Amino acid sequence: MRSVIQLASVNDYVGYMVYMNKQGYKWADGTPLVPVSLARYHKYGHGTYVREIHKSKEILWVPNDYVELTPGTELIPYIEKTNYFDTHESIKSDLPSEKESKDDIYHPNHYTSGGIEPIQYIQSHNMNYEKGNVIKYITRAGKKEGESEIKDLKKAQNYIQLLIKKLEEEEK
């Protein structure tokens, strides 16, 4: 029987990673479990499921519907009793802060909330600069901290106007 570990809270996630790291486990991609990555937790969502591969001492993410799709899978909730956010400064310092997170640079929240980043959509449709910026500003409108939704929509409008002007000139 296969078993899946459920990590319902971020504290459960941190505690499980610390515990499994002490047991010699790592992520299946070779990444160490500690320092703990909150970005990884948030990427896969709350109520995260992982499988332990005991032979190779690896941890593997599994989708939330894995238990339903794999008959005979045992769900084991992991409940961490230690509060890592109030008592363990060494753990807190290992967690990426909002300012330090690489996700803020490469995968900011205002571009990732819809499941596909604008850059992926733009590249998959071979869009030019103007069309790409329209997609970018429409996608992030109202989501980027400190930016007005109207300002982003006006930026998108500006790129639409530039594109129309460019296409009209090409038709002459």
Description:
The chain is 49% helix and 13% strand. It has 172 residues and is an alpha/beta fold. The chain starts with a strand and ends with a helix. Residues 88-96 and 98-102 have low confidence and may be disordered.
Topology, element by element:
Blueprint: E1 3-7, H1 10-22, E2 26-27, H2 38-44, E3 48-53, E4 58-62, H3 66-69, E5 74-77, H4 84-87, H5 89-94, H6 103-106, H7 109-112, H8 118-124, H9 129-140, H10 149-171
Parallel strand pairs: 1-5, 2-4
Antiparallel strand pairs: 1-3, 3-4
Helix pairs in contact: 8-9, 9-10
Task: Give a concise summary.
By secondary structure, the chain is α/β, with parallel strands linked by helices. It is built from ten helices and five strands.
